[in-house]
Amino acid sequence: MPSSDASSTLRLPSGLRTRDFLIGGWTALVFVFLYVPIIVLVAYSFNASRLNVLWSGFTLDWYVRVWDNGPLLRAAQNSLVIACISTVLSVVLGTSGAWLLHRYRFRGAGGIQTLTAIPMVMPEILMGISLLIFFASAGLSLGFATVVIGHVTFSFPFVLVAVQARLRGLDPALEEAALDLGATPFKAFWLVIVPCLRPAIVAGGLMAFSLSWDELIVTFFTTNASAATLPIRVFGMAKVGLNPMLNALSAIFVLATAAVVLFSAYVRRLAR
Amino acid sequence: MDPLASPAAPDAKSLPSDHRRARWRAWLLLTPMVLWLVAFVVVPTAILLVYSFCERDELGRVVFSFTWENYQRVLDPVYLRIFGRSIGYAALTTVICVVVGFPVAYCIGRASEAWRQRLLLLVMVPFWTSFLIRTYAWITILKEEGLLNGALSALSIVHAPLDLLYTPSAVVIGLVYAYLPFMILPIYGSVEKIDGALIEAAHDLGAGPLRVFTSVIIPLTLPGIAAGTLLVFVPAIGMFAVTDLLGGAQVPLIGNVIQNQFMQARDWPFGAALGMVFMLLFAVSYGLILRFRREETA
After folding, report:
1. Which of A155, A214, B176, B219 is deepest in the core (most CB within 10 A)?
2. Nearest-CA neighbor of B53 among B68, B40, B42?
3. Among all residues of chain B, which has the CA nearest to that of A95?
């Protein structure tokens, strides 16, 4: 606890102690609320019974069934392909855009900046229906390409923002030195600036990947049956009701998420 | 443009101001991003606006015309009530998230460095876990043969299973559960920035704990609360997946109605009109919150 609390404790001992105790207790309760459903979900993925209430023995059967489920695996594969492509495109668009907006003064730069913020804040359902109408009027049939377009549109601004934050702390002399030493502007960007931006690019890329991997609403309006992603399949299954296969799948997701969160915390610590 | 600074030579000797001005090459490089935004954000929104004034024929095809009919239908009490309900649910979710999340954000923000990192990681895992999975978790708990009913009847508190799933409470629980981390993190950001000396000074000047809270802590964390409200209120209005999964068809919100117009009813012009009204709602609430935030930080 900071020293300010200690000094005030002298004045108002009981009051402050009670307050800290209450806040700490409340926080613990909220974490219980946040974690109990997730833990229950994971625990019951090992339950032999189809119903969730009774524990009737340990099994890995549901994991085996997920592994044997063709449509689910295909959806996972689709999700992975779409997330990878849209991450690469988002990193390219976001990083180059951030650099150009930082390095050069464009007429109307403020307007461009505002435009990049819109996909981040726009409700997903509005983006979904407007893209659906757009693809329909443009005569594009829905599938992988339309899903990737949707995902890149809301992902790349996050890369842009992450890279811009890092650029603000960058020494302008770095690029000037590279140019003075005879590098072309492209070489200076690629060999000097990009390595400096790597932590922000990695963070933005992770963000873009996980946004794409989790996305349901925009995908819902821009996909067809053959390009259905994992969230689309999971949504369909969850609508029908309980299914222990979903528990198993969710458990894998939760563990993967926790691993990515810990990994990115580790990367951030390294970057410091 | 300065004729001496030829684009072929490296710009090392040019003046800084000239050096920074975007020339055609920089514009060319920025074009893909600008085009992307125009093609997939601006144009689709414009087409949505156009569609909202169109009609559809008996086969559900869109006929280009100019009619206010779709907007007149939006003003039908049935749809106004759904809009009102959506705003009400989103507002309730936001308020619960602030009340529940504020002490947590405060606790994290005032904790020691090591604890702060640990607690933040604990918020991050649900934050990043797919909301779909977290919503499904509540189905397993609230279902008629689910965990909560099982536990209640095992303890013989209830004798017949309660109807928990597909109720308004289930929707609100699901929304709060989905959005709580999005409220905790921005408030934490504000709490972390509070200078401890200000709280101490308020104490020294004789303010009680309640007074310190209402006159010092709340005003200083308002930007965080406003940012959290942006992240919770606006998306919660249109969230149809949580209401679909936990509310069944019992409590349609505006997101469900829009989705239905596009997927099942296939009345795109009417769906577009509903979407445009939602867009207006979004823009107004967004603008209001941003303005409020700017006044607070200024």
Report:
1. A155
2. B68
3. B33
More confident residue, B219 or A87: A87
Provide the residue range defining the domain that includes A211. 70-271
What pLDDT is stored for residue A259 in this prediction? 87
Element (H, E) at B25: helix B24-37
Q: Could you tell me where the DSSP H helices lie in chain A?
A: 3-11, 13-43, 61-68, 70-103, 109-121, 124-138, 144-168, 173-180, 185-188, 194-214, 217-222, 230-240, 244-271
Number of C-beta neighbours around residue A2 at 10 A: 12
User: Per the structure block, which two tokens stand in for B39?
Assistant: 């093609």
Distance CA B145, CA B167 (A): 15
**pLDDT confidence bin for B298, thresholds 50/70/90:** low
Contact A254 B133 (CB under 8 A): yes
Instruction: Please say whether the beta carbons of A159 and A94 come within 8 A.
Output: yes
* Partner A contacted by B138 (CB < 8 A): yes
pLDDT (0 to 100) of residue A272: 62
Cβ-based contacts of B44 with chain A (< 8 Å): 127, 130-131, 133-134
Cβ within 8 Å of A, B 6-35: 10-12, 20-23, 26-27, 29-30, 32-34
User: pLDDT for A179-219, tens place per residue?
Assistant: 889 888 888 889 989 998 998 998 899 889 988 988 999 99
Identify the CATH assignment for B76-297 out of 3.10.100.10, 1.20.140.10, 3.40.50.620, 1.10.3720.10: 1.10.3720.10
pLDDT at B18: 53
**Interface contact B45, partner A, CB < 8 A:** yes
Q: Residue length, chain A?
A: 272
A19 and A78 belong to one structural domain: no
